[in-house]
Each structure stands twice: as C-alpha cells, then as structure tokens.
Fold this protein.
Amino acid sequence: MHIRSSKWLTTALVFLIFSSGCKKWEDHLNITDPNITKTVFQQISENPDLSKFTQYVVSTGYDKVLNSTKNYTVFAPTNAAMAAVGVDVTGDTAKLNKFISNHLANQVYNTLNVSGTVRVKMLNGKYINMFGKTMEDANITKADILASNGVVQILDKALPYLPNIWEAVLTNTSIPAKQKAYLLSLYTNVFDATNAIQTGVNPVTGVPIYQAGTDSVATNQFWLNVHDVRNESNQYTLFVLSDAAWDAEITKLKPYFATSTVDSTTKLCSWEVVKDLAVAGVYTPSGAAADSIYSKFNTNTPIEKASIAQTIKTSNGMIYIMNKVNNLAKYKIKPFYIEAENYRYTSIDRRGNTYFRDRFNPITNKDFTDVLVTGHGVTGYNMNYQIKNVSSVKYRAYWVALNDFQTTTFSQKLGIGSAASTILPLTVVSPNIYTEVLLGEFTFTNYQSFLDLFLVANGTTQISCDYFRLEPVVP
Amino acid sequence: MKRFFIKYCLLVVLGATAFSSCKKTFDLLPQAQLDASQMYRNVYDADAAIVGLYGKFTSLAERYIVLNELRGDMLEYTDNADEYLRQISTHSVTAENPYANPRPFYELIVNCNDVLKNFNSMHDAKKMKEAEFQERYSDVLFLRSFLYLQLGIHYGSVPYVTDALATLDDVNNESKFPKLSFNVLLDSLINVSERATYKDEYASSSTLAVTVDGYPTQKWFVNKKVVLADLNLWKGNYVQAASYYRQVMETGTVGTLNGSYYSMYKVGWDSNGDIDHYITYSRAGDASTLVTNSQWRIMFELPTTTEGFRREWVWAIPFDNKFKPENPFVKLFSNIGGSYLVKPSKNATDMWDNEQQKSASAATGTPGIPYDARGQLSWKNINGQPVVMKFLYNYINNNTNLPINVLQKDSKWFLFRQTQLHMRFAEAANRVGRYRLAWGLLNSGIAGAYPAPTSDVTLYHNTLNDSYPFNFDARNSGSAGVPYYRSDWYRNIGIRSRANLVDQAVPATDSLNQIGNTLARFITCCFKKK
C-alpha cells in the first residue's frame, strides 16, 4: 500500500510541474543574453570607443568576414590606441590590410581558457603571443565579449605588423653589413617542379624538360642547415655581429680552418661563426654578466648583456645586434668519438673472424660492445672509419682496447689518413685494461672536410677495440 | 474493484491449469537451449562440461598474470594503466579493485562443484564407464584444487566451498563457509586430492585427448601431479612434493630410447634447437649472433603440435582468433593493437643485466657476455617502449616487430614449464639436505654436479645410493667407453647451463640459503616463472 501511494504522488508531481511551470521552463531555456544575437562585427561597430578600428575594418572589407558564420576573435584597439598608429600605415591600403588582419584570429580565444602562452595565428599568417590578458605589449582591457560568431577582446594598444627575422635582416637598416652580406651569399638554387613550365620530354630518358629559370627556387643554406628563420609559427633568436665583431670572430678562427686559399678559409670561418648565431626560442638577457647560449650544434656562445647594441623585435622572435661575442675556438672545434664496431669497410672480408662482443667495464660499471678480429691471417688487416670537418689543429688520440683473451700483450695501430700511415706508432694493448690509453698526438696544418682513419693489425695479430677518440688541443 | 476481479480470475485460471494438465501444457523443452535434463547423459556431455570449465578458466588468464607478475614486481604498470593495475603494483588495493576480487575464482569453483555433483550422479546411474568417470572426475577436482591454491596464495584465508548449490553471495557468509587459514586449506586440499584414484594425464585414447582447431588438447588440462606436488611443497612435505615432481619429470621415460625419452621434462639437450631451447650464439663469442629464430625464444612461439612444444610445456592453453575467450595478453602487453598496460619492471631487467654468461672460448675472451640473453628474448623495445614479448610471439613477428595480422590476436597462456618443474624439485630437495643435487639441477645438470671423481666412483654421474625421489642416474660412458651405456638422465644439463650462464658458486658454509636465494631469484626472474 505504501508503494502504491508514493507512485501516485510522483505522477501527480510530474503533472503539476508540466501544467503549471511550462512558461518558466521556456524562459529558462531561452537565450536572454542580447550579445549572443550579434556578430563580432556588430559588437565592435556598436562600441563608440572602437569606431576608428571599425572604420578601417570596413574600408579593408573585413566587415564581411566578421559577419560570416565562422568563429573569430577580434582583438580591437580602442580609439586612443588607434591614434598612435601612423599615417604611413593607415594611408597605405596594402599595409592597412596587413595591419587590420593582424588583429583578427580564426578561432575563439577566450582569456579564461588560455593557459600559459598561446601563439595566436592571425588572419595574415602572423602569430602573436597571448598570455593571460596580454597580447605581447598590449593589455586586454575588456575581455571575452561574446558574440554569435566569436569573441571580442578590447586592447589598449594596437598590434603592429612586424616583419619576421629574415624579412628584418633584409629590410632593417640597422642590420650590420658584413654578416648580412654573408647570409645573402648563402642563397642557392634547388630544383623544384612546383611552378615549372614543361616544354617537352626527353625522347631518350623520358624525363620532362622545363623552361629555363622556372624549374628551380632560391633557397638559403642558413634556412636549411641552421634554422628556417622565416617560419612564422616558431620563434627564434638571431644574433647579428657588428662588422668589427664579425671580422674579429673570423680572424680568431682562421688558424683552425686553414685551407689553401684565403677566400675559402674566410668562407669556412664565416660559416663556423654564423651557424651558432641562431637558436630556437626567444632569448632574453638574464641579467648575469654573460649567458651561455647553446646552438643546435651544441656550441656554447657566451652573450654579454653589455655587448647588445640593439634589440629588434620581429613577428617570430628577436634579433640582437652584438658589438662583440666572446666565442672561443675551443667551443667550436669538436672532439671525435668513434665506436670501433661501426667500421665502414675492412681491407678483406673477415666477418668469420670478427666478433662483436658485449663486455662489462668494471671502471664505468657499464656494458659496452667492442670488436675483436682474431685469426684473420692477413698482414696489416685493417678496418676503415671516416670523420668529417677536421680542423687544422693538434689532436690527441686515445682508445679503449680490451685484451681479455690472453695474458700476453699485442699491439695495433691507428692509421691517420691511410692504413700505411706512421703518424701514430704501434701501441701495446696490455691485458685487462679498461681505461683510455693515449696513442700520441699529431697536428694538421690544413682543415679537411673528411678524413679516413684505420685500425690496423700488427702483422697478423688480432685487432681489439671498444672506441677511439680524437681530442683537439685548443688553447 | 475491477482490478481485484481480474486478479481473482487470473488466479482461478492458473489454479485450474495447475491442477489439471500441467505436465502437457507447460513442460515443453526450450528448442535452442540445453535443458539440465539434456545435459550429463553420456561421456560426451561430460567432456563438454569439462571443456566448458576450461573455457571459463582461460578467462582468468589476465587476472592470473596480473596477480602473480605485476604484484610480484616483475612487471610494472605503464602510463596507460588504470588506477586498479597501479594499486596491484604498489600493494595498496582498495575494496572495489576488480583484480583483487576473488569472485571469478569462486564462480568457477562453484561450477566445478556442480560438475562434480553431476558426474557423481552419472556414475551412480552408470552413464559413464568407471575409467572415464575417474579420469574426468579427478580432472575437475584438481582444477578446483589449483584454483584454491591460487586463492590461498593470493588471499591467505579463504572460504572453502565444496557445495554445488552454494550461491556466490553465500561465500561471504562466514557462518555458512568459515574462512580457512592457508595451512588448514592446504590440509583439506591435499586430503581430497590424494584420495583421487586417477592422477595421470588423460590417456591418449581418451575422447578429451584430441586435436581441436589444430591444437592438441592434452596440455590444456591441469597436470594433477604438479598440483599435488605444489600443495605439498607449500605445506612443507618436501619429500612428498619431490616425489610427485619426480613422477612428472619422468613422464618421457617410457617406450623407445629416443630424444623424447632422454629429454622430455628432463631439461636435456637434443642437438635440435627447435626442441632443446638453449641460449645459443651462431658464432660463439659474437654477441650480435644470438640465435632468435630457433632455440630458447622459439619455445614461446612454437605451434602446440610440435615436438619442441610437447617436450617443454607441461601446461599451456592457447588463445586463438577462431575461438573465445579473446586473448587478453595483446591488450595487456602490446603497444601495437593493444592497450600496453604493463611493461617489464626495472627489477626484472636488472636481474637479467646482472647475470654472467659462460665464456665462449679463451680466444674470444673471458669472462663471457655480461648479461642473461633471456632478457633480450623476453622483452624488447618497440617504437621506443619496452614490451614484454613472451606472450606476444604468436602475434608480433620477432623479425619485423609488426603484428603478423593485427586482427588475429593469437597467444598462449603459459602455466607450467619443465624448468619450473626442476626448480621446484630443487627447492624441495634443498630443503631436505640434497644441496648438491639441487645445485646440479639449477646449474650444470646432474652429471655436472657429480663429475668424474679421483678415487671413489660410487657417485660418478649419479645419486643412486640416495632414496627415491632423489636417486638419479645420469651416467654416460662417453663415445669410447666400454661398455657403452647411456642412463636415463645423461642428457640433463641444468637450467643455468641451458641459458649459457655460469654456475653459481656456493660457499661451503651456507648451502641451504645460498641455493635458496638462487632459487628465489630464478623463480621470479622471468615473466613466466621458470
């Protein structure tokens, strides 16, 4: 009986709710915020403090875009902020276009949902960092004004249209001449059929023939090998040296990259200087006497705050013009570390006598793999290795060679340049030595783009080696 | 008022039908489902019941691995693992954790009880021959004992239910089924299992020893003597345990003197890598030549029809895309096509890393390779993630690291291997003072433990002066010996020798603990206990 009465009560309640409260539910569900019925364009056009910005939006035709059904965020500077924008921008249609589209983004960016720094992509392809209620230097004074197709953020400063780092290098008059000239000298043409005009087909090979000059694009070695500082979506820092500093750095490196001609030495040194002057991310001086900046080649470049002559802000990072950088040659010239088991080729195939052994080093407490060739029966049997970018400097050679298979010693040699080389002598391998052994030192008078090295047997005795290492001796 | 009238009418009609012709009107049998009266009519129905039990048993595979290996710190949860797996790993289990819930074990136990009751009825009604009945009855009985042993190991005190009609909610009712301590549980289990008259595998003529979907069924079923031995080992009846293990170790010692005779369950060599499963390098001393397409790794990949599989595995149940239940191991272990919930623990990989292999030859250096190569064959890095491979070799191709067929998730649930047999025998032998024998089985075999003596040749390659089950004969006259003879255990090489590991040195003062420690390390040093 109790159950039945509660059932009746529930039914009655449901009826009551539906019959009496209908109107209130409707009110509750209806959209009552009048803002939601307006587009972002209507929102900014109805705000008298945004009238100047609105005027330019209309004159550039972006009012149609902002009335459309996609989602937008409009970063609208107030009239006071717009007053600071020069006539050079507002009077030039092309510049004005870029400037206005620099305030419009193709997504909703709500300050409440933004955590950390967000790179907001604007309609002109540039990115601007949004952090809390700031857009770079500008503050969002009135945030998150809703509209039917997005959100409006009101700014106290306009967002200037900035060139990217590469554009700034090309156009900014403060960029010192020598480094700029070198960067421009790194242009090369590479094949690219995207815009090529085909004029025929080679009857023999079947390969298309393109109209001369259309089948290649100019690219720059700096973009390819260091950082593509044209890329808007990432941020970089580029250091540009004053002409005096540039010359000083090159002079400093010349002894270590000596070649047969002055020109090629200068070219080589220029590359060595410039390749470490761009880093990913935005660097800001820490306040310490000197910051250590590591390039992607893992070279330390000390940056002294006092030496920064000028700072140029760009759309994808910073350019610092430097009066000097105290980069030391010893940071630039790298040691070589070669695992003996990773040889390129051997003088004669003796895989059947070659053992890639896994061993335990009780000094480092780590396992390692070495190579042992035993019983090969070939006088002067050798294995080849190759290293690249070898500086003109003194090197010391070391190896770890394990002799754990006999109680007597044997000897072997590291051949520099050729297997017959006598630059380094035969070196004794004593039983159970797990530490590095110095093989000797040698000096190159010229830089070499690549150098062959050989592990060479003494007569027909075995070869055993974990790794060898060339350590540059740079003051 | 109307409502009451209808009710009364209904009652009257119902009553009338009940009184009049109940049987004819309502006692129709369902057409698409089996009714209890159609079950248990003959031996084939009994077989179906047993296959049903084992089908349900395989659905416990994931839980079994998680409880044993993740809880035992041989596996570690990954970032993908849910809270419950993490709890098991960190030993901080909450009440709602499904892995810690013994209910699925009890569901199967109650099913076993029901089947046992019906087998008894069939037996009474002479629906099965005596031999058929004994075979099947003890199979179910031992499966139940195995489940209880697992429950006891993982949960300590557990309710002991042998009643077929018990509902699962009654299991929690202490007044109906009081919780037995592990020791009392062991007593009960040993008592009931010892009484079973049939303790062997199914006879080869049995209708349950057949081939289904290409899988021989013989090794799907619990090995009764192993269960008995385990129970006795836990209980501390070491000689009794060793006797049962010994009986299983001697499974192959029948018939023709051939490879199977000398090596099945004997950890013996066979000069065939697909059968004897050594750790081998095709060029000894060259670590880059570890044999992976034969030898040790292959035991996890071999089809269940092969001789190598037959000699190695005592108990293993296949998962195949052709039948249910679905393989849980791909989900658990694989980062391709699975959820990748667990990975090898540092504890496990360190144990492999800290081992030492035998030196191949003086010419290629001593000591040998400084790690246990079984590690490389048990797990590997796939797409930068460490993946436990043992259960995946029928799913991921070892050479390409890609699934053989991403939708065909085949695998095997490895429950018992010949090495486990030898380890546990060694454990029992060690506890009753047979240190040297235990050492031999673990290290370089019986012949290795009893090498050529200088004067008294009584113990040369044998322990025949000891009593059963510790009397082994591994004598081997050598190829030039006169007379020429090969004893039953001459091929036994020891578990560590098979893995190419150096023998464990034992200080004369503390044999029991030293060998015990080695055993403990070995027992755990694997994703499937060795």
Observations:
- The first strand of chain B starts at residue 75 and ends at 77.
